[in-house]
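A reminder before we start the practical. When you read a complex entry, don't treat the lines as separate problems. The point of joint prediction is that each chain is placed relative to the others, so the output describes one connected object in space. Small molecules and nucleic acid strands, if listed, are placed in the same frame. In the example below there are two entries. Take a minute to note the order of the lines before looking further.
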Amino acid sequence: MPPVRTARASKKAPPEGFDDLEDTLLEFAAAMKDAENAPHDGKKKYEMVWPIFQITHQRSRYIYELYYEKEAISRQLYDWLLKNGYADAGLIAKWKKQGYEKLCCVRCIQTKETNFRSTCICRVPKEQLKEGQDIQCVNCGCRGCSSGD
Amino acid sequence: MSDVPVRPPPPPPPLPAGWTEHNAPSGHTYYFNKETKKSTYTRPVAAAAQPPPPTPLPPPPASLPARPPASLGAESGYSDYNDPTHQQLNAFDPKRQMEDLIFGGAQNLYSNRGQDHARGGLRGGFRGGHNNFADRPRQPRDRPKHRQDIPGCAPWVLVRTKLRRRFVWNKDTNESFWKFPPDVMKAVIEFDRVEREKKERRERGEPSDVEEDDAMAEIEAGLAQAEEDVEIVEVEGEEGMEDEEEYEEVEVTDDEGEEASHPPKRQRTEEPPTEQPPEDDDLAWQLAQMEEMEQMGGDHEQEEYFEEEPLSEDDCKALFKELLDDTNTNPYTPWDKVLEAGALYGDERYKALPNMKARKECFDEWARDKIQYLKEQKAKQQKLDPRIPYLALLDRYATPKLYWPEFRRKYKKEPELKDMKLPDKEKEKLYREHIKRIGMHSSELKSDLTALLKAQPLAALNHSSTLDTLPSSILIDLRYISLPPSSREPLIKTYISTLPAAPEGAAASAEEEAAVAKKREERRRRERALAEREKSVQEEKRQQERDLAYGKGRLREEEMEIERAMNVGKEGLRAHLGAE
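Here is the predicted structure of the whole assembly.
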């Protein structure tokens, strides 16, 4: 029988430099917890998940910028953060591609499950929308994440 | 007319007996007769009868006779006459042209007045003799404010005064004239045209090229030279500065009136006695003063004149970065969180950058640099770190009674043992060696420790070091902890007391100090520039408000005047004439 690995034991100690980010990440974790436990009265069902998407986006963006733009953290730490779920690797992979620099969530570019096989409304550039049209997508509450905006 | 630039006024006739000259609080000169107890603004003449000739009340500006305040019909006629589109007409009117020149840009400000009676210029509201001087808002004393070289007219400089009047000043001969000499006038007209175009372009939002810098430098040099040969004549308000201001052009227009054989309908109440010469000197003096002020104020004083760009973009960025430094912002926090914390808003430096995008960019740049810097600092520190606390732990708890596994189990909660930076193998090795050494003879241990101490360079271990500030090279050595603290500490103390003082590392620090001082100096300069910018903005605002209030006052006065003019009784024109 293989040894039973607890979550604690299986986790490697974070690489160097983690303590610099720890406070901010804890804040994100607390915000996430609040969002998860927020009351749902008077809200649409899909609206409930918006803050969760938003916090995920912010946290991923934070780590992405620290690694790719400010070059503040090491490769080891970055990998460790991705592995431990502090950032969404799929989302970051999209941000590196042209045209997706501001993408809000990967669900918004998923064309498979939409009625007209198209992306989300938030991917439409502002100038192609009607004058004064105010949008907020159903998936994550994004108000527009086209790269040109 | 314009070939006679300045006509010195005739010397005033002497006062008749019994009359004395005084200055009113408003700055005007008046005359008082002791015997008859009469006072008048008119200068009494000896030849005339003893009571002064019955002259009208204070200053009827000479512009008036040519154009009496008339009924509305006449006004409309004049508005036609003054219509800016009738340039040819105006061109033949030297007086008007003159005033156009003198008031240059100021016309835009007072345009509504200028439309109705451009002749009046600044004095527009004062005709008709309805004003008494006490009512009038006291004008600040006029002084030169802004200089511009007239292109293509080398030694001449166009100076704009605080009241937005303009005169020309010859740098070489140090002459200044309200009335522009003909050759200069052409250049000024051309210059005005260029300026206007530039302004229009700016209003349209096109960038205007900055070309004033070199011109300014030249003026600077010229003024410095001029200052030497200017004889400083201080003319304070005794002569009635206001009067001077009001009457300079009066004289000019009056002369013209005579030349053009307009019979002067009004007698001038006051012949400004020695007006022109002191005026000249006064202006020269003021120019010299201006120059002096500039020299005192140093370079940032100059920035007042170039209000457009007191701070470069880099300076603004540096200011913002300093703000971030000063608020102890953590470079690892995201920008949104920094904003949420709200520590930045209260500071002036926050406004140094124009918009949020620029601020975010600046923050990113700053964070990257700061993180880099922190990393370097940490790298420097960490070299000495990991073994020191572990050895301290060994010093405290290690006994020969415990084997390594036992020791590790017993103290596994201690952070030093949990520390991953020092591998377990290393820890074990250190522990075993330490236990072995504890069993050795104390005299041997002492000699080992002395050897260790002697091996230290004087820079690291010297007379000024204490037990708390021992160099790390000692702290990571097993020989240091082999002796128990009770016997170790006196030994080290006595050894330190025999050491000489530390060698001077001044040469290295001097450079650093210079760098720090330079940085501080830079910073101070930027902060000053920011304050300067703030001040100039305030100043401009105040100026605008004042102008507005002034213009409103004028407008009101004019309205009242028109009302009076409209108020024609049964007597018709006779009432008006009689009143005057």
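Discuss with your neighbour: Chain B has a mean pLDDT of 70. What might explain this?
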